[in-house]
């Protein structure tokens, strides 16, 4: 029989870490998606030349490893600017722009997937730019972009494990603390992996359901 020193309080400690992971993910994906939509539409409308400065900034967030971004931003705010900002806020801010950088590419690709003839027909019927984007482009582009966006959301959830470097005790950090105290690495990592599965599985199933439903419309 398998014996463990893990108590109910330890399970609650992991659950608290899982809640921090969920909270960081929700805030970052929500705000990152809003910024990503804005940047994606902007880059599509202004073209590659005028959108080059925005593209350059977004490429920085896509190119530099997230771990380095977290460390540099936290050090810049705390040491250089001497601002008292919590690690949670830093983590959400960095992950928001990290998400926005990738989401903007997803949005731009979704818009470009809408046939030009469809948009031209909509404009010939008297729709202005806003109406064209709302009633024609948005529904069609969302169907194209949804699978990639779901993958991005799941990726951000897993990447949130790196926020421990800014003193945020999320799920993986909570697991590591218990491993140090209880010395049961395999069992605790299994429990931590189960928590990650329970968080990500509903998101993946929801995305699959929406994709299947829209494909049948």
Number of helical stretches of at least 4 residues: 8
What is the terminal-to-terminal distance?
53 Å
Order of helices and strands: HHHHHHHH
Class derived from helix and strand content:
mainly alpha
Helical percentage: over 70%
| β-strand amount | under 5%
Q: Mean pLDDT, as a whole number?
A: 89
Extract low-pLDDT stretches. Answer: none
Report what the structure shows:
The longest helix has 43 residues, at 8-50. The chain is 82% helix and 0% strand. It is built from 8 helices and no strands. It has 217 residues and is mainly α.
Please outline what is shown here.
The protein is mostly helical. The chain is built from eight helices and no strands. The protein has helices spanning 8-50, 52-63, 66-80, 87-112, 116-124, 129-159, 171-182, 185-215.
Which structural traits does this protein have?
8 helices, mainly alpha, flat, 217 residues, single chain
Set out the fold topology.
Layout: H1 8-50, H2 52-63, H3 66-80, H4 87-112, H5 116-124, H6 129-159, H7 171-182, H8 185-215
